[in-house]
Amino acid sequence: MTMSGPSLRQLHAHHAIHEGALSGALTKTEEVEDLLRAKEYEVARQAADHLLEYWETRIISHADAEEEGFYQEMIDQKPELKETVADLTRDHDILRIIAADIKKLLVEEGVSYEVMKQFHALLVVNAIHSREEERLLLQEPSI
């Protein structure tokens, strides 16, 4: 069994990971949009490729790490979390599906309105997922 790092088990540290990653994704998404508005299509395409790579290496790889250790630790400590962890894993799967769709769309049509909608979908799904993950797995139950 893979043990997750202590930062995944502490609310404040895990929240900081989520916030930092989401903030970076938001900034990079806005950069692509600014380039499109400026009609800098070639540079926008490069920025979109970098944005997708950021999602894959920063956010989806974080999801992979959670699934490889942290989630199982949570289930081991509290077996009643099994369904919650399954739901959170499904969120990760949705992020992976959207990222794969973006990759395909970028090849087929370049940076399009549909690609930007999908990048925004990643932001929304990830924000909701992170909030719920922190609430369900890391916050102490209120008395």
Q: Can you give me a brief rundown of this structure?
A:
Helix content is 85%, strand content 0%. With 143 residues, it is an all-alpha fold.
Description of the structure:
The protein is mainly α and 143 residues long. It has 5 helices and no strands. The chain has helices at residues 6-9, 11-37, 41-77, 82-109, 113-138. Helix 2 packs antiparallel against helix 3 and helix 3 (41-77) packs antiparallel against helix 4 (82-109). The longest helix is centred in the middle third of the chain and has 37 residues, at 41-77. The radius of gyration is 17 Å and the shape is elongated. The two termini are 33 Å apart. The model has no long low-confidence stretch (mean pLDDT 91).
List the topology elements.
Layout: H1 6-9, H2 11-37, H3 41-77, H4 82-109, H5 113-138
Helix pairs in contact: 2-3, 2-5, 3-4, 4-5
Keywords summarizing the entry:
143 residues; mainly alpha; 85% helix
Q: Give the low-confidence spans.
A: none
> Given the C-alpha coordinates, what overall shape results?
elongated
Number of strands: 0
Number of helices: 5
Query: Quick one: biggest sheet?
Result: none
Helix share, percent: over 70%
The chain-level structural class is mainly alpha
Distance between the termini: 33 Å
Mean pLDDT, rounded to whole units? 91
Roughly how many Å is the radius of gyration?
Answer: 17 Å
Estimate the strand proportion.
Answer: under 5%
